[in-house]
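Final report, closing paragraph on structural work. Over the funding period we assembled a curated collection of sequence-structure pairs, and we close with a single example.
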Amino acid sequence: MSLIARFEAFYLRAKKNRWYWLFSVFCRVALAFAFTTAGLTKVVGERFASGLSELHPMGAYLTALHRTGYYYTFIGYAQMLAAILLLIPRTVLLGSLLYFPIIVNIWLLSYAVRFEGSIVTSPLMVLANLYLLVWHYDRIRYLLPFRKFSHLGLVEKPAVYDNRFPWRFLGSVLLTVVAVVLFARFGHEVMPRNSLRDCKLQFEDSGAGSAGDNFCNCIHRRGETLDQCLQEYEAARNAD
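Its predicted structure, as stored:
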């Protein structure tokens, strides 16, 4: 049996299981709530994460984005539209397709500038969005670069759900969440943090000395780029 055939056999079992379906509903509601709040902030014209200093790499980006005028508002409407589409059963797939490029962009941005505000939530939202796309595999598989397709067809909602609890799936979800949190916590030697005080706290008992102070001042007082501040930090550590 080919890999695709094995996947489709599992897919058919999952589509008949009540718990997999409930998890898809949870993903829809959670993702819709996140984009509704974020989109509404943009629609009303407020800067997202308004408490973040403009000298911070993410703060500088959000300030510049806020000053783009109707483009900033357009992003807000796009986020709210994606959220609404996710909540309507007939338009879940369309909402998932609209949601995906937006949340991937947020995820990559969060990692690029090491922003604490979404360094955990954004990758989890990407994974939740991917789950919804896979949940509708029977509808989107024709977009995939397969040479030929099986006779899977459109999978109808089962008359009676299988109530067996997918313990291994739950374990994999929990392990994924733990892995994302641990990477956010320990994946980087230094983080800009959201304030000068919090930035300096991470260097207590680390032995970084003046290199840590210089890094935080570079971010929060001089407003340099993250790459520039990291280079100065590495140079100072090597000099020590």
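The chain has eleven helices and no strands. The chain has two domains: 3-143+165-186, 196-239. We thank the funder for supporting this effort.
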